[in-house]
Amino acid sequence: PREHYGSALEVGCSVGALAVDLAHRCDHLLALDNSEAAIRLARRRTAAVATIDVRRAQVPDEWPEGRFDLVSVSEVGYFLSPRQLAGVGARAGSVEAFHVAVNALI
Prior knowledge:
This protein is α/β, with parallel strands linked by helices. It contains 3 helices and 5 strands, in the order E-H-E-H-E-E-H-E. It is globular. The termini are close together.
């Protein structure tokens, strides 16, 4: 992976732990999760980082607008159906880096 990305998308941000780490490697990070409880905790954890935007969304059906240089799919991959995971891959296929990490750091 590169040292720095302009715009990144984290699919399945959970409580925001990886989002805080990713934020140091990109100009803007959009962190998504489908759980309202996780979103509340992620917003609290990332509140001091101005470059992180945390939103609730069900991907791939609610794919966000915009262009992303990096798409990170971490542990949420366990919970996506094969159709959903393929949909994420298809949406991310146009980005420079599509990173699927399971218990790994970028």
